[in-house]
Amino acid sequence: MSHITLNSDKLLYNFTFLDKLFSRSHIDWAIVGKLLCGNEKFLSVLLEISNKEICDSRLSNLKTIKKLSPKTQTVYIKPPAQRLAKSIVEFADVSFNTEINTIKALSEEAVKQQKIHKIVIMVEMGELREGIMAKNLPQFYGEVLPYPNIEVVGIGTNLNCLNGILPDEKKLTKLNRYKEIVEETYGMKIPYISAGSSVTIPLIFKNQIPDGINHFRVGETLFFGTDVYQDSLISGMYQDVFCLTVEIIEIIEKPVIPAGEVGTNLSGESPQYDAKDLGKKSTRAIVDIGLLDIDPKNISPFLQGIEIIGASSDMLILDLGTNDSQFKVGDTLDFNMDYMAVLRAMNSDYVDKKVRKVFLQDN
After folding, report:
1. Which end of the chain is more exposed for a tag (fewer CB within 10 A), N or C?
2. What is the structure's pLDDT at 272?
3. Where does the record place the Alanine racemase N-terminal domain (predicted)?
4. In the structure, what pLDDT confidence band is assigned to residue 362 with cuts at 50, 70 and 90?
């Protein structure tokens, strides 16, 4: 069975790298763990490594985190649906909010559950995803204040996820000023501005983070060592925390070009072929993973000389050329994975999950 492996040693290294970076900049940070899709095995490794709060956009995943580690602070990082208010208060210590009526529902539930529910008010800064308009922040904050058992612990923003709008010093300075206006208006302190994410990390290296920005939410850079701002890699971090391993289930020398009239395949494509390949043959391998579990565009083989030809729902087709490595049926191949590859594989029940543990027993 194909499987995805989490290397806990490399994850710990990346965590330590980021923790030192944020500590030097006097910034608190939380881990966005939604990539792990609530998998208990992988979440246990993350919780073993980190004492940080864990963010997720799926309530069921936060429920799993609370089961594994009741004391870990959980953060629901999208505006909650009103109908989920009871469960949000039960399993999320903090939630990101933009709607007064939803906050009212959370307040009612927090009173019933005898809890203080913390909220971060999300502010629109150009990305046009979630967030109230900045000019309305003082009024919105004033409307939230009377609700019992609700504590505003921060204001935040989201950038880059929908329209690719990049953070910059000017936007972050404006957001800090909005917070100061609210504090001056109401004579109250707002502890955090949660305005950083993986895409904002490169601004730290450039000393372009205003002093008031003191909270980051990081997922991709932790797991992949990526510089999201410049679509590159951060020197000194591991990019291969995850590895996809597949098994060869067929290996036969076949023609390079298929025979017959070409229609559309499972993906609705009509493949094109180069006439110069007529009559040529190569070693074709089929491995035990397909479109249901992975997108071929999001993975790449560790070994040189292996080409991904295509995939059907359950199988991936590879061209091994002359098969110089002498692969045979039953052998396994390893692939690098990007963010979307891991997300898709983690969400598939047909891909096994394994941990290469260093501080715990190998599994």
Report:
1. N
2. 72
3. 45-225
4. very low
Of the candidates 128, 136, 134, the one whose C-alpha atom is nearest the C-alpha of residue 159 is: 128
Residues 15 and 102 both lie in one domain: yes
- Please tell me whether residues 113 and 25 are part of one structural domain: yes
| Residues that are catalytic | 34
The last residue of a domain, from among 198, 229, 260: 229
The pLDDT of residue 358 is 62
CA 131, 137, 139, 140 dihedral sign is positive
Mean pLDDT of the chain: 94
Query: How do beta strands 332-337 and 3-7 pair?
Result: unpaired
Please count the CA atoms within 13 angstroms of the CA of 36 that sit on its side-chain side: 30
Helix runs in 39-99, H state only: 40-49, 59-68, 85-91
d(CA 6, CA 343) in angstroms, rounded, equals 13
Q: Which residue has the tokens 């302190």?
A: 189
Last residue of a domain, one of 199, 229, 259: 229
How much is the pLDDT for 275?
64
- In this structure, are residues 156 and 123 in contact, taking their beta carbons and an 8 Å threshold? yes
Query: Does 212 lie in the same domain as 348?
Result: no
Evaluate if residue 59 carries a pLDDT over 90.
yes
Give the chain's end-to-end CA distance (angstroms, integer): 15
